[in-house]
Amino acid sequence: MKVAKAFCSIGNIYSQMGMLPEALAMYQKDLQITAHNLQPDDLRVADAKYNVGLASCRVGRYSEGLALLEEALDIRIAVLGPEHASVADALVCIGGVHSCIGHHAEALERYQRATSIRKAVLGPDHTAVALSLRNAASAHACLGQADPAIEECGEAHAILLHRLGPDHRLTAEAKQLLVDVAAGNPRARAIATAPPSLA
C-alpha cells in the first residue's frame, strides 16, 4: 500500500502543477493497487475512486468521472453514514461537476443535500455551510430562480461576514455574487460553471 500512497502523492503534485493527464495516470495506478488489496467498501478505495473521478472530470471525461465519484460517495455513505461531513464534501464535488456540464438541477440537488448535512454536522454558521449556500445560489441563478438565489447568497454572505470579516476574499466574492444575482448579471453563473478542484 505504500506504493499506492506514493502514486497518490505524485498525483497530487501533478494536479497542483496543472499537469492533469499525468495526475490522472498516477491516481489510476493508486486505484488499481488499492482496489486489488483492500475490500471494495474501504474508505481508502473510496478516496482513490474520488481522485480518479475528479481528475477524469478535470480532463473532460465527465461520464466516467461522475460514475467514479458516485461510487466513492456510495462507499462513504455506507461506511460513515449519510450525515457525515465527508459525504457533504463529495456531494459538493459532484454538484460542481454537474454544474460544469450544464446539469444545474442535478447540481442544485447535491448542493442542497450538502448544505443540510453541513448545517447538521458543523452548525448553521460554519464557513463550509456558506460555501454550499453560495454554490446552491449560483445553481439557482443558472436555472433562472432569482429569489432563492438571492436568499442563499444573502445567508452565505452573512455567515462569511461574521466568520471571516469584511476584508476576506470569500466574503467579498459572496457579496459580489449577491450583487450579481440581484442585478440578473450573468457573472452569477460563473461559479456554477467553474471546474471543480481536487479536494
TrEMBL record:
<keyword id="KW-0677">Repeat</keyword>
<dbReference type="InterPro" id="IPR019734">
    <property type="entry name" value="TPR_rpt"/>
</dbReference>
<keyword id="KW-0802">TPR repeat</keyword>
<dbReference type="InterPro" id="IPR011990">
    <property type="entry name" value="TPR-like_helical_dom_sf"/>
</dbReference>
<feature type="repeat" description="TPR">
    <location>
        <begin position="4"/>
        <end position="37"/>
    </location>
</feature>
<dbReference type="Pfam" id="PF13424">
    <property type="entry name" value="TPR_12"/>
</dbReference>
<protein>
    <recommendedName>
        <fullName>Kinesin light chain</fullName>
    </recommendedName>
</protein>
<dbReference type="Pfam" id="PF13176">
    <property type="entry name" value="TPR_7"/>
</dbReference>
